[in-house]
Design goal:
The chain contains 7 helices and 12 strands. The protein folds into 2 domains: 180 residues, Glucose Oxidase, domain 1 (3-Layer(bba) Sandwich); 45 residues, no CATH class. α2 packs across α6. It is α/β, with parallel strands linked by helices. It is 31% helix and 22% strand. The strands form 3 sheets. Strands 1, 2, 3, 5, 7, 8, 11 and 12 form an 8-stranded mixed sheet that branches. Strands 4-6 form a two-stranded parallel sheet.
Length: 242
């Protein structure tokens, strides 16, 4: 790739962040399922910090391929196409999504790289790979969702080949500028073209589920309640007016 010709990250409307920050990922996956999208949850990406904050941001993608001995060397860290160069291209507020092929015995980033990402105000890092220098990484404060930790460097198992291009992370197709929503349930992708529809539907879905939970707490049986039949839909609409 030409490091000067990558796809730029688009700004994310503050309203999108405000609305989605109040909506659980479980709700978002339900909305996307109703739109026919089933494969949106990034497998293997678990919160490295046991008390993760909720994060919403545009995807900034990184791509690794299997290690090739003539390319995956410590010298490659200083090349124009490197994780170091990619970090300098990351805009404030993005969610970095790294396709590490699910490799779990080579850490893609350590404390120094994560510290630089935190300094650049990257919102979070999501990967189907693992981290190294975990104690130092946690100290940087950068929110990270990954498969765990490994001491060896990335070049022992992976070759970095580019950024801001389509990737496959955790079995999910991620394109630059898709929106990533992350919480305790993991990382969910919202396709860029569907963001407005999800934002429009999310508050109502949350209200409905809150009403259903209230009915469950009152002792209402689930059949006909979840999902609601016509009678319970009418009761729900009446509750909104009340």
């Amino acid at each position: 790739m030409d490091p000067n010709n990558y796809q730029a990250t688009l700004p994310l409307d503050r309203k999108v962040v405000d609305v989605l920050s109040k909506v659980a990922n479980a709700t978002i996956t339900t909305i996307l399922l109703k739109k026919g999208l089933r494969n949106v949850w990034i497998r293997g990406a678990r919160a490295l910090n046991p008390n993760p904050a909720r994060v919403i941001g545009r995807a900034f993608t990184l791509r690794f391929v299997p290690a090739r001995e003539d390319l995956a060397t410590p010298a490659s860290w200083g090349a124009p196409i490197s994780t170091r160069a990619a970090i300098e291209a990351m805009p404030e507020g993005c969610v970095t999504v790294a396709d590490a092929l699910g490799v779990t015995d080579a850490g893609i980033f350590g404390d120094i790289l994560c510290a630089r990402m935190a300094k650049r105000k990257v919102a979070a890092l999501v990967t189907d790979g693992v981290m190294r220098d975990v104690t130092g990484v946690l100290a940087t404060g950068l929110p990270i969702w990954c498969q765990g930790a490994a001491a060896p460097a990335s070049v022992t198992g992976l070759t970095f080949v580019g950024w801001q291009e389509p990737i496959a992370c955790g079995g999910v197709a991620v394109f630059p500028n898709d929106v990533i929503s992350i919480d305790g349930d993991g990382a969910v992708l919202i396709p860029a073209d569907l963001v407005d529809e999800v934002v429009a539907a999310a508050p109502e879905q949350e209200r409905l589920e809150a009403w259903i939970m209230g009915e469950v707490e009152k002792g209402t049986p689930l059949p006909g309640l979840y999902p609601p039949n016509d009678a319970n839909k009418a009761r729900y609409e009446a509750s909104k007016k009340a």
